[in-house]
Design a protein that fits this description.
Number of strands: 9
CATH architecture: Beta Barrel
InterPro entries: CYTH-like_dom_sf, CYTH_domain, NeuTTM/CthTTM-like
Pfam family, one: CYTH
Number of helices: 1
Radius of gyration: 15 Å
CATH topology: Hypothetical Protein Pfu-838710-001
Order of helices and strands: EEEEEHEEEE
Protein name: CYTH domain-containing protein
Strand content: over 45%
Amino acid sequence: MGVEIERKFLPAGEGWRALGEPVLLRQGYLSSDPARVVRVRVEGGCATLTIKGPSVGATRGEWEYPIPLHEANELLDTLCQRPVIEKYRRRITHAGNVWEVDEFLGANAGLVVAEIELASEGQAFDKPDWIGREVSDDARYFNSSLIGLPYSRWQR
């Protein structure tokens, strides 16, 4: 079993925009139940099927498998819950860690989330100056939650 230990933050300012090359991702969910998330993702010419277990703190079980691109596109177009998540991702290296900054499109346009994957929950890491408030414990920011309640419908 793989393990994902991830923390999420909102960017502070626009400094991240000049870093990293944006890549378009499309992802959809066959199951968005927090106890068993099943995701299909297309990134460039590659596709994956990912299964995630329930979160305990910032940790959850994760299993990821490459799948044929044409099958991923079929799943995204026919079986995945709506809306399919579309976003631009930038991978930015800072102080030896990789930050993934997602700028969402469509029903989630206007939302930007920065994530870092860690080796342990207690791992220390240096935050870039463009990292703001942590939202790891706010389920609204989970990609699987954004299909049920897109950012465009949040009360702000």
